[in-house]
Write a structure and sequence with these properties.
- By secondary structure, the protein is of the alpha/beta class.
- The protein has helices at 10-18, 42-54, 72-84, and strands at 4-7, 23-27, 58-63, 89-92.
- The protein has a four-stranded parallel beta sheet, with helices on one face.
- The two termini are 23 Å apart.
Length: 93
């Protein structure tokens, strides 16, 4: 079993881990259904990844909006960062 918590930004991600979450999910600035959340920049994605690695936790990224054909190039720019940051999984629609 795993306690999974949402994080609207890097600060709440740290708070969720501090409060005992085993894993956190967050969105990025683009393609997140939680559009009102601040969400993570690519730079913050890497910081979040380093944090979760240091404390042996998990990080999931939500790419959970419909992605239209004219947005595919933006998605293709994001995917290598997700791999490089070694996230633990994706939440997709």
């Amino acid at each position: 079993m795993e306690l999974l918590a949402p994080a609207k930004d890097l600060e709440t991600l740290i708070c969720a881990f501090d409060a005992g979450a085993d894993a956190v999910y967050a969105g990025l600035k683009k393609f997140s259904a939680r559009a009102r959340a601040k969400n993570l920049t690519i730079e913050e994605l890497y910081k979040a990844s380093e944090i979760k690695k240091k404390i042996n936790k998990k990080l999931y990224i939500a790419l959970n909006t419909l992605i239209f054909e004219n947005e595919m190039h933006e998605l293709m720019e994001i995917l290598p960062h997700l791999k490089s940051a070694q996230i633990d999984g994706l939440i997709i629609q």
